[in-house]
Write a structure and sequence with these properties.
Jelly Rolls, 12-stranded antiparallel sheet, mainly beta
Amino acid sequence: MRRPIATIAALFAVTFLSLPAQASVFISPRLGAPDPGPGPGERLVVSFDAPNVAGFTWDGVPNSRIGSLAGVAAAPAGVTGRFGFVSTGAGQPRIATLRTPALRSISFYWGSVDAHNRVAVLDGAGRTLMTLDGNQLGPANGSWTASLTNRRVGFHAGPGVSIGGLRFIARGTAFEFDSIAALGVPEPASWALMIAGFGLTGLAARRQSRALSRAAAR
């Protein structure tokens, strides 16, 4: 069994890359295993040890396994449960696309980063907002255990944009990943309730202020 993953506030403070009005990349400042867990506000949505959270579906379902197999896939450092992967090994899919509800952010634990690994961030219509490959994360030498090649990486939606999915692409032996976590976009009804709540709070504060003024004038 994989150890429980805790959400750690303010974990992803480092912005690595950005594309104006599209998306930005954030990486955990803590290197390597164990996986530091979801970013602020995110919850686990795909674990490979349990069914996906509703609304998170695959096109080209990735493989999953427990443990490493040379020439096929390496378990991300610190992961003892199942993990997902796309692989150029015989009979393995090379691309898998995770479709999601509208999101403000999404992150995943990226194992044994290789130069040939590539992830594309999609919008709700399936258009590519940005891509990130292993070369942009560090040595990208495919080490199964090194800190710099086992990282939690995530993406924030830019202004006026929401994230609608991730596409995992293996152009070499394998692209391994686990523990995908996400933060959704508030529903219009939620925004309305928040705005109404702010309005009621302001009204109550004004009434209290008037009452105090009248009491002071007596």
